[in-house]
Please model this.
Amino acid sequence: MAGSSLRTLCLAYRVLTPAHNLEQKDEKGVFNIEKSELVLICIVGVKDIPRKEVPDAIKKCHRAGIKVRMVTGDNLITAKAIAREVGILKDGQ
Model:
């Protein structure tokens, strides 16, 4: 999925009872209830489609001698796929 510029999401659920502690967190602020006994429903790929004017704007930058850089928190494979899609990277880079 990452190679197709898709962000991967897992959807899951957990059956809760009144006895579960819904407020207790670990040292990183993650609720303990969210860390175990989850039932995976599916894994989906979500595409954040770049605005249609982006590839042309990147071409104009390249013609002007501007090196375009993309800052993202995406997985490296996803980021490279998006960069190729909009023209920041060329095939083989």
User: Anything to note?
Assistant: The helical segments are 54-63, 76-86. The radius of gyration is 20 Å. The mean pLDDT is 92.
